C-alpha cells in the first residue's frame, strides 16, 4: 500500500507549475510550497507538472529546483520528482560508480520492481547513458557478483498468480542440494532466482521450509533437533554441531558479501516490505544517519508499499517510522520525508 496522500481536488498542472515558479524565483525560496505540491502528487501528475513547466517557462524544473535548494532536501526532492524509470536508471548508474559497496542498489532495482518497471528502467538507462544496464553491470562487477546481478537485471518475470507446486517442490530440492554443496553461485540456483515469478518463488521457498525444516535464508532448527542438541551436548559440542548444520544454510558465513547479497535478493523478491524495513532500521541505527539510503528507500517505496513497511517497522522496533525519521533528520528534509510517508493531514 502506498503512503502518498493526494488532495481530493488537485490543481491543474499549469497552476502547480505557476506556484512552483513563484516559489523558485525572486527573493528566497518557498520550500513549504515545494513540499506542499510535489510531496502530494503521484508520478503521472509530477510528469505533467514537469512537462507543463518546461513548455511554459522553457526551463527544466529539476534544474531549477537543484539551483535553489541544497543538501539532503534537494536530493529527496530531485529523486522524487523524477519519473520512476528515470530515477531507477540514475540510481543504477550512480551505484555502478561506487561498486562494490553499492551492489545492493542494483539488486533492489532488479528484484523489488515489477517486470514492466524493470524493463522501462533498462530502456531509460540505455537511452540516457548509451549503454545497456546489463552491459554496465557486467563491466563494473566481477565473479559471482557479476553472475548473479547480470541474471537479475535481465529478468523478465511472469507477473501472474499461477503456481506449479510440483515445480516448486522439485526446485526446492535443487536449491537445497546446491546450498548443501556450498555451490552458492551455481547456474541452476541463479537460474531459478532469475526466471521464476515472485509467486512461484514464494511457493518454492515454502516447499524448502516444509521439506528441510528451515527457511532458505535463515539458520533455524526443527524443535526436536534443537531440543536433542540442548539435552545431550556440552556447549562446545553444541556450537560445533550447530556450525555444521548452519553450513547447509545461506547464513553459513554472515561476513561473506556475496551470501549477504544473495540473502537480500531472496528477501527482496519475496518480502520486499521486510527487506526495506531492515534497510531503514540499519540506516537510522546508532550514531549518524545514512541519509542517502534513507532518501532512496522513501523516494522509491512511497508509491508502492510504504504503509506495509511502516507496519513492519513499528512491529520490529516498537517505534513508528515517523518518530524515527523525526529523531534522525531535521528541517525541510524532515518535512519532505514525513509528507512522503503519509504523516499528518493535507
List how many beta strands DSSP finds.
Answer: 0
Work out the helix count: 21
Q: Order of helices and strands, N to C? A: HHHHHHHHHHHHHHHHHHHHH
Instruction: Give the amount of beta strand, in percent.
Output: under 5%
Give the overall pLDDT as a whole number.
91
Structural class: mainly alpha
The largest β sheet comes out as: none
- Give me the Rg, rounded: 23 Å
Distance between the termini: 18 Å
Helix content: 55-70%
Q: Please state the overall shape, judged from the principal axes of the Cα atoms.
A: globular
Low-confidence residue ranges: 220-232, 236-248
Concise overview:
The protein is globular. It has 346 residues and is mainly α.
What key phrases describe this protein's structure?
69% helix, mainly alpha, single chain, 346 residues, globular
Write the layout of secondary structure elements.
Layout: H1 13-24, H2 31-38, H3 43-57, H4 61-68, H5 71-81, H6 84-96, H7 103-112, H8 115-129, H9 133-140, H10 143-153, H11 165-180, H12 187-195, H13 198-212, H14 223-232, H15 235-246, H16 257-270, H17 272-283, H18 291-301, H19 306-317, H20 321-328, H21 331-340
Helix pairs in contact: 1-2, 1-3, 2-21, 5-18, 5-21, 6-7, 6-8, 6-9, 7-10, 7-16, 9-10, 10-12, 11-13, 16-17, 17-18, 17-19
Amino acid at each position: 500500500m502506498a503512503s502518498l496522500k493526494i488532495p481530493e481536488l488537485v490543481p491543474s498542472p499549469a497552476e502547480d507549475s505557476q506556484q512552483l515558479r513563484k516559489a523558485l524565483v525572486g527573493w528566497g525560496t518557498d520550500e513549504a510550497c515545494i513540499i506542499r505540491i510535489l510531496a502530494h502528487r503521484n508520478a503521472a501528475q509530477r510528469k505533467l507538472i514537469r512537462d507543463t513547466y518546461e513548455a511554459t517557462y522553457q526551463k527544466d524544473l529539476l534544474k531549477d529546483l537543484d539551483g535553489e535548494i541544497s543538501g539532503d532536501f534537494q536530493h529527496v526532492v530531485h529523486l522524487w520528482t523524477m519519473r520512476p524509470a528515470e530515477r531507477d536508471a540514475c540510481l543504477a548508474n550512480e551505484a555502478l560508480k561506487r561498486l562494490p559497496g553499492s551492489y545492493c542498489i542494483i539488486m533492489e532495482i532488479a528484484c523489488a520492481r515489477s517486470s514492466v518497471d524493470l524493463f522501462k528502467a533498462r530502456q531509460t538507462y540505455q537511452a540516457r547513458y548509451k549503454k545497456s544496464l546489463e552491459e554496465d553491470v557486467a563491466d563494473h562487477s566481477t565473479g559471482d557478483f557479476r553472475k548473479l546481478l547480470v541474471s537479475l537485471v535481465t529478468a523478465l518475470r511472469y507477473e501472474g498468480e499461477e503456481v506449479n507446486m510440483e515445480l516448486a517442490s522439485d526446485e526446492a530440492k535443487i536449491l537445497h542440494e546446491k546450498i548443501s554443496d556450498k555451490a552458492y553461485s551455481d547456474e541452476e540456483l541463479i537460474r531459478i532466482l532469475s526466471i521464476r515469478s515472485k509467486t512461484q518463488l514464494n511457493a518454492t521457498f515454502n516447499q524448502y521450509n516444509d521439506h528441510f525444516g528451515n527457511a532458505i535464508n535463515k539458520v533455524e532448527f526443527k524443535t526436536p533437533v534443537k531440543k536433542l542438541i540442548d539435552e545431550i551436548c556440552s556447549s562446545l559440542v553444541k556450537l560445533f554441531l550447530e556450525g555444521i548444520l548452519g553450513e547447509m544454510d545461506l547464513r553459513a558465513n554472515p561476513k561473506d558479501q556475496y551470501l549477504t547479497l544473495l540473502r537480500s535478493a531472496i528477501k527482496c523478491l519475496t518480502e520486499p516490505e521486510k527487506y526495506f524495513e531492515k534497510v531503514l532500521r540499519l540506516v537510522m541505527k546508532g550514531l549518524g544517519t545514512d541519509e542517502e539510503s534513507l532518501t532512496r528507500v522513501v523516494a522509491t517505496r512511497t508509491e508502492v508499499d510504504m504503509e506495509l513497511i511502516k507496519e513492519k517497522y513499528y512491529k520490529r522496533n516498537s517505534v513508528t517510522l515517523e518518530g524515527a525519521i523525526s529523531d534522525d533528520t531535521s528541517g525541510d528534509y524532515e518535512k519532505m520525508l514525513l509528507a512522503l510517508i503519509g504523516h499528518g493531514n493535507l
